[in-house]
Amino acid sequence: MAEQTIEENGQSPRKMPIFAGGFGAAEAEAEFMLRISVPEPDAALPTTDEETIRWLAEIRVGIEIASSPYALINAEGPLVPICDHGNNFGLVLGPQIPRDNWLDLNSIEAALDIAGEQVGAATAAAMLDGPLGAVRFLLQNMASRGIAPQSGWWISTGAVTGVHPVSLGQAGEARFAGLGSVHCVIAAVP
């Protein structure tokens, strides 16, 4: 779960705080955000995309913000970001994706702009098993540790357009072809 989850209001970009004195150049990632809905107690874990959809309440377009109070988080090896919740500091939730599009997530084109310039564009097809596969991996991983998933949890499924540095005051916009966009402005943690 993210430190903070905000819903973009569609009018003006929402402020997404980062740690100004920590990991200085935070990162913005255009992602699909999937919200868990456990089908029933002791439900069999999904093994296909169709079965995975039964475990979802909604899917939205979004932006994940990576920021940490520890400035060297990315310089000291992979265990450091893992210990810091994967360097996740928050999610900006955009428009919901209609259920008819859920099996087509891998073909939806996404683009990310930072400060008005496009910094990345791709589809989730290049990602290992795509967003629905990320859900299956997480559910399997949690089951192997004896952790029960909870309805209402958001899953940030991976940076479709890559990971891109952002600085204080910069605006970010993630656009998803035919589905809408989500915006935020990077601000300092109060």
Q: Can you give a write-up of this model?
A:
This protein is mainly β and 190 residues long. Helices cover 13% and strands 37% of the residues. Strands 1, 3, 4, 5, 8 and 9 form a six-stranded mixed sheet that branches. The longest helix has 15 residues, at 130-144.
What's the gyration radius in Å? 16 Å
Summed over residues and divided by their number, the pLDDT gives a mean of: 87
In the CATH hierarchy, the third-tier topology is known as Fumarylacetoacetate hydrolase, domain 2
Largest sheet composition: 6 strands, mixed
Provide the helix percentage: 10-25%
N-to-C SSE string, H for helix and E for strand? EEEHEHEEEHEEEE
- Going by CATH, the architecture would be Alpha-Beta Complex
Shape: globular
Q: Give the N-to-C terminal Cα separation.
A: 21 Å
The CATH superfamily bears the name Fumarylacetoacetase-like, C-terminal domain
- Spans of at least 5 consecutive residues with low confidence: none
> CATH class, please?
Alpha Beta
**What is the chains' assembly state?**
single chain
What's the total helix number?
A: 3
Number of β-strand runs: 11
Indicate the proportion of strand residues.
35-45%
- Class from helix and strand fractions: mainly beta
User: How many domains make up the 3D coordinates?
Assistant: 1
